[in-house]
Amino acid sequence: MNKLFQGKRVAVIGLGISGLATVRFLLKHGVKPVLMDTRLKVAGLEQIPAEKVDGIYLGELDANRLAKMDVLLVSPGLDLSLPAVRFAIAQGVQIIGDVELFAMVNTKPVVAITGSNGKSTVTKLVEHMLNCAGIKALAAGNIGLAVLDALEQIDTEVYVLELSSFQLETTHQLNLVAAAHLNVSEDHLDRHGTMANYAAAKQRIFQHTQLAVWNQDDALTKPQFSVPADIAIGLSSGAYGLINIDNENWLQVANEPLMRVNEMSMVGRHNQFNALAAAAVALAAGASRQGLIKALQTFAPLPHRCTLVADSQGVRWVNDSKATNVNATFFALDFMTVPTIWIVGGVDKGNDYSELMSLVREKVKGIICLGVDNRKIIDAFGGVVDIMVEVNNMQEAVKTASYMAEKGDAVLLSPACASFDLFENYEDRGRQ
What we know:
There is one protein chain. By secondary structure, the protein is of the alpha/beta class. It contains 17 helices and 20 strands. Strand 1 (10-13), helix 2 and strand 2 form a beta-alpha-beta unit. The chain is globular, with a radius of gyration of 23 Å.
């Protein structure tokens, strides 16, 4: 590690979970970084001794200061198109992220998952499958545990990484046993600008993988890099798909029936796809078929993802706060089987709501708009549902929904938008 950055000026920009983990990692390996953050107050910064680093700069980024560095370790949350960052790149400064640093020092097998929707579920499911098969696996990355903190758990045998498009932008040499790309739908266009840029960032997961797992129903997930082997996953019949045996749906894995769909702990067609993708990745990392079955029978669905949180007076309340784009909300509405009060809205990321129209006509009896700017939602669905209400906070939303819902209905929080207008994050939104 010392040799890697010896004689180089290193800065860590963005001091969130991954940024602070990067700082701790560098200090442990004798590197004295400069710390920067665009915020004036940074939670957790007090844990870093000021004398151990080469300066702390908060607030607007100074282009000249960045340009004097040799290496910038950039947080996934920082937009690389910021003028100060672009200036540093133009001066030849190396830009990497914590995943790239992980790739430089890690010596153990790694699998990784990306996609607009479902990647957290598949990541945790692969981890569970490997552990059920007796292989010590650890999930990290975009899922909450920073990859450099994950390296501290030395008994890990396989790392299972969830990677966002932002993380992949600054990753160049991550060698993978298997990489899964689940889907691409409109998301983060406020950051990437175009779907082409967003899709290209996601494709970077296939740069150095032995096996590429992709969605046969989504051409944007098909590997654009040359890969040694690839597997297409889908819900039609195939090597990895659904088959019918005695009028029951079964998961087919590697051309052999694995288990009945109704034996899975998760429900919904999207989770059948997630199970197939996870199985392909886990098998590549050494899992047994028995381990896959055990995992799919016992896996606990992640919170804030189509989770039933209450069944009160005949009304089912479903928390799908993790649905931060239109495609995720499509699956949530498709999942609903009774008349639904839909709570929607937040920070719009360039959403096109038209693909939800048929589901809204079929299933939604009322819409509660919960966001700072609801204009696009009102314009899209104002003439489609009988009742549309705007509210200012989650308490109002829940109270209004309880008035609107009748016995036999459901209330679904599936915002299709980011949460940062009224909440700390999607978890805070879901808890409220």
